[in-house]
């Protein structure tokens, strides 16, 4: 289905007169139908860039923005789409309800959008509608929460939950490596989400490299300020002395930091997660226990729009030699500290 | 039990028919405490014993007791309001959403310019406003409370989401933030706990010692009989939903103090927690009998479990199972007591 589409694209591109195929294409490519070029002398000329190209209508089915990070996802997608003259964004109302989101995606399929970007409320539950879109010839860019079948999407882009835990663990490990019998706590997110389990697994695996460190407590909160405050207050009560805390989510971190302040504690270091602006501000000011946050960048939504556009125009990704966009892209969970916070502040969401 | 007798007996019905007030100090005490609550006091005692046994140093510390009471205070205030509504034979499913809306509205930039007073006033007014809508729809519009308050649940949460734009609205007004810090404790008691205590005492007095309380019980027992006895049932119903909204407004302010922010996810599932606490406390879901002390004990039992489990590093799945088991056990015990 997709092949038919991309060959149609390239036929049109040929008709449009961008016929001068580079020497590389002529020589090396075996299954190449995407042999247009924008006339530049770079070897991989068939890559997407900022220049206006073929008109692409992108359907976007995002999440209900009831959380800072999810809100940032929707905003990033919309803002990025506006930057391209050749992109029309058809965004549906965000939803946490599986049935409602399926309905919205089916509407987008019926509208015959060129490409779909979907952040499913529940990846497994929305797999069928992803398949339906692909069968209808609409390539799907699956954002973050992954569909159960690789046939349901053309490309997946998302954060690295395991890596988030791993990097948080390594950062804490390096800070505490010279301390005997160091104790750490974990304030996790929603426990019935796969991503929470992955974050915890990564964290535990990283800590295995530091035999002097023991994880003495873990509570799951619900990604909300209220639950963050409540669970953190309990953790502080249960552990009179510990050296570091990893909190999975900066939104619930607002509550957690409040509980820490209320308990009058400052005898440990805290690492956050996701990369909210308030967290980065606190890291920069360096006047709270929060010393770092591990990114789970909402800019992935903007990148998803880039990928969808490239897909719609039958192009690859700039900077890579590939003729097609990759099948999957896992983002890096960088650790933001006082030293590099200025670099990341523009991506902080509120 | 919730018949004509209930309309006359102020307060906890079903106690032994002791003499008039003052004749027998023990009987008076017993009526005050309400025998039905003894099972809950027992559960609480067991939980405290378990806590003292498993984590003697942490559990019984002053810090921890302050924490348990603080965490009970927000949902506790909501539960007092809900107890009134349930006693009258109604239900309020919108309490969590009202808390969310009031907390979000009261933490918008506009209200923060007016300081602590502005935030408090806004939270209370939003609570009252929602309560008014509920009350008018139910009392004068003839809507079933379940549906009217379900509609309020949906729309208040939606409005909260819209106003906050999905963001966490951080409070910058220092007097509000300071209220949640240890410096503001009065004689070692956090201000939020004092508010909770005041609301509890007021609620108890109103339900058990005033005409308003007697009317509430009467409507819950038999609304038609109450109407024939000359009670303005509609007006009474309206007042009850207003009261519930008021409690939610106060609770929203307390939550703002506690978390230093307003968020549309605030008060998540409060409706179920508050109703569960009221029911295990001995308030009849069908109306006609309500006890504030029971409701507050119910809240304390839930909060103590959460605390106990966190201290022992148990996960939320186990906590939920235990909560379910305790609801079932408490209701079964009460059933055993109340059916002769």
From TrEMBL, chain A:
Q: From what superkingdom does this record's organism come?
A: Bacteria
What's the protein name?
A: Substrate-binding domain-containing protein
Q: Which part of the chain is the Periplasmic binding protein domain?
A: 58-315
Return the annotated region ranges for Disordered: 29-54
Q: Which family does it belong to?
A: Belongs to the bacterial solute-binding protein 2 family.
* Span of the signal peptide: 1-26
State the InterPro entries in the record: Peripla_BP_I, SBP_2_dom, TAT_signal
Which keywords does UniProt give here? Signal
Q: Read off the Gene3D superfamilies from this record.
A: 3.40.50.2300
The protein's matches in SUPFAM superfamilies, at most eight in alphabetical order, are given as:
Periplasmic binding protein-like I (SSF53822)
UniProt keyword Signal, yes or no:
yes
Per the record, where are the segments of Polar residues compositional bias?
Answer: 29-47
